[in-house]
């Protein structure tokens, strides 16, 4: 084989292997679109298609081929991963909300301190004015 052709062939194989890993890494949750750009359909296995587990559901690429470059994910797994993702988002939102309530309390304390310090500054201003009158009279 020609060395240039061999390089092209190995590069093509490497690109194909990389694409397979990209597809498998991206298959998480409920897929919206297949990496090929195909629409995801809700597939339900019929009794004729398979002897066991009739009615099993899949998220499947409309252009599905068993080449590893298209999605065909069991419905249960996709929904479970999506629930885990949404649960994590809810927990993060709860943390933010708790942090916001803590910030509100902290802000109230700071406002009280500012009010106290303003009163103290007013008192000191009166005392300085009094001392200036005494010293310069």
What does this entry look like structurally?
By secondary structure, the protein is mainly α. It has helices at residues 3-26, 75-136, and strands spanning 40-44, 57-61, 72-74. It has a 3-stranded antiparallel beta sheet. The protein is elongated. Keywords: Coiled coil. Residues 76-127 form a coiled coil.
Tag the structure with descriptive keywords.
single chain, 137 residues, mainly alpha, 2 helices
Shape: elongated
Indicate the multimeric state.
Answer: single chain
Structural class: mainly alpha
In DSSP terms, counting alpha (H) and pi (I) runs of 4 or more, how many helices? 2
- Rg on CA atoms, Å: 34 Å
Q: What are the secondary-structure elements, in order, as H or E?
A: HEEEH
How would you characterize the largest beta sheet? 3 strands, antiparallel
Average residue-wise pLDDT = 82
- How far the N terminus sits from the C terminus, by CA atoms, comes to 109 Å
- Helix amount, in percent? 55-70%
Can you tell me the residue ranges where pLDDT is under 50 for at least 5 consecutive residues?
A: none
């Amino acid at each position: 084989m020609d060395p240039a052709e061999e390089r092209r062939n190995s590069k093509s194989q490497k690109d194909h292997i990389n694409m397979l890993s990209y597809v498998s890494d991206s298959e998480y949750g409920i897929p919206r679109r297949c990496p090929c750009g195909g629409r995801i359909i809700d597939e339900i296995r019929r009794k004729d298609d398979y002897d066991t587990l009739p009615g099993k559901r899949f998220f499947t690429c409309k252009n599905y081929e068993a080449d590893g470059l298209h999605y065909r994910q069991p419905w249960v797994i996709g929904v479970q991963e999506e629930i885990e993702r949404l649960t994590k988002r809810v927990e993060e939102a709860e943390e933010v909300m708790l942090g916001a309530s803590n910030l509100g309390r902290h802000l109230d304390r700071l406002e009280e301190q500012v009010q106290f310090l303003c009163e103290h500054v007013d008192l000191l201003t009166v005392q300085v004015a009094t001392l200036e009158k005494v010293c310069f009279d």
